[in-house]
Amino acid sequence: MDAMLKTSVWQQYGAAMDMFEDALHLCPDHLWTAALWKDTEDERYGHFWFIAYHTLFWADLFFTGSMEGFMPPPPFIRGKLPDTPYTKDQILTYLNHCRSKSQSIIEELTDEKASQICKFEWMEPTYLELQLYSMRHIQEHGAQLNLMLGQHDITGMDWVARARTAAERNAPR
Question: pTM for the whole thing?
Fold first, then answer.
């Protein structure tokens, strides 16, 4: 697969993850379990922490390319909510897991893998399209989290044009 295309995809995928990460870091403890919306199935589905988890769970699953046999890393569980909300540190650890996984997958992406069909109930995209779909999903929920923070007068969000380097991500905030 073309190296320039892979670099471009990573730069934008990584930027979406960086903006998502910013929302996590900016979230004060008292908003971690606050609701962005009411969910009729279970109110926790609308909570800040769950939206963050949901976003990363699906990103991780989409890197796999199939529901079959997918399990998130511990302590995360598939198919049910935890007894207590996941902590910010747990979610940030999962984000780092997903960032590392995505960067490796994109760097190693071949034409054959990119064109592989991935089957889900609601669509059958190519693997490459699934990664772009996932990037949009991360950006959507990152924007929702940032909007909620802004509505609570939390500042510090900013546009990220390209993926930050490891040094930039690890610099003091």
Answer: 0.94
